[in-house]
Amino acid sequence: MTHFDDLMAFARETRALSLVAGRLGWDQETMMPRGAGEQRSEEKAALEGVLHRRRSDPRVGEWLSKINAQDLDPIAQANLGHIRRTYERSTMVPADLKAQIARVSSKSHSAWAEAREANDFASFVPVLSEMVDLKRQEATALCAGGPIYDALLDDYEPGATSQSLTAMFDALRPRLVALRAKALEKPAPKALEGSFDESEQMKLARIVAKSFGYDFKRGRVDKAVHPFSSGSGDDVRITTRTVAEDPFNCLYSTIHEVGHASYEQNVDPQYGLTYLGRGVSMGVHESQSRIYENQIGRSRAYCEWLYGEMVKAFGDFGLADADEFYAAVNIVKKGYIRTEADEVQYNLHVLLRYDLERQLIEGTLEVADLEEAWNARFADDFGYAVDRASNGVLQDVHWAVGYFGYFATYTLGNVFAGCLHQALRSAVPDLDDALARGNTGPAVEWLRENLQRHGARYEPREVIAKACGFEPSEGPLLDYLEAKFTALYP
From the candidates 29, 257, 371, 474, which is the catalytic residue? Predict the structure, then answer.
């Protein structure tokens, strides 16, 4: 075997173990007994220790030093680049720090869930403060004298910087605020009302998942407090949630997570258990979940089909036709929860979190002051006060488990989705005819062929540009939102 063969065999084992670690996280959110939290934290810390030792193993450095990338084909070169980057970042962070972060993340997750249920942020402050301190230590080890926040951002969106993202977000904000104000000034369309059987919601969620091509032979749908997708290749699982009074929450959470899952299921099989056999970044990942959920799933054409499925599941549920259904699905209204926000306001929720988490990591905001800062910012951006912690600072799990640098990728994903949608509509001009029959095949196949199958072979912005035929920017997203919601709220 060559040095590259040895390196790839070692990397495949590491990748397999990382998927096992992900399965522990899936189990913790879906099926783990409540009393197992402390033991699970030790299990996750032990496995994270093993993974960190493998990623920083001196043999990896030796193999890398002996391999001439010019002797490799482009796919092998791409794998080598990911392995080198992971090795270099792993050797910069002490193994005991990585294990401690894993241990505290499990403990913090349980503390967050309890604090959220009790609407008691103060009880969560000690463990979140511990997590923030650990992530500051990690960022300091990684930043090499550069911006400390960017070191964490690089885990989720390689190549992105807070400077470039802030410029993009500043360009988004004025038009989003203006569009939000215009929509809220208009009479609201008829909203969905009533109670919808939660078991029927889950049945319909599975029908919807199948309509987007989700492969149940290689996946499953379960319930969780915070919907998510987990896994890669031949084992890609999703979760959703049900609320009796809001079936849209279940259905569109499902579509969102199917977007993530489809990306993982549709990566070229030859990349399986390698560094290329996964989504390249969270921003690109989010572009798939958002284009599935919004540009496709909330389109007038798809809503025509989904309305019929709702009637089959629930009978007469109070909306007269597909037009009323489409307006209700896309209603712009006041609300606290990011994951339930309409397309117009969603990114305003993200920008709030992006700014606060940068301040936490940079040390200009302490955890003890976070709730007050959140509430003040929310009042400024949305014009009304947060009523309780579970609707405010405790609504997201990300900070509890140490996902600092993650939130920015949600808005970046929306920007990428806007670009992809523009290109998709140009490539498939009769798409609405298929969507009105519940056939997402033309859209899903275009995304699979132009983006999903590549996995992590290309850099994030590069794969978007290749798919679209132009460099990504915020313009297509803003144009799409203004056209759609100006028509809905004339």
Answer: 257
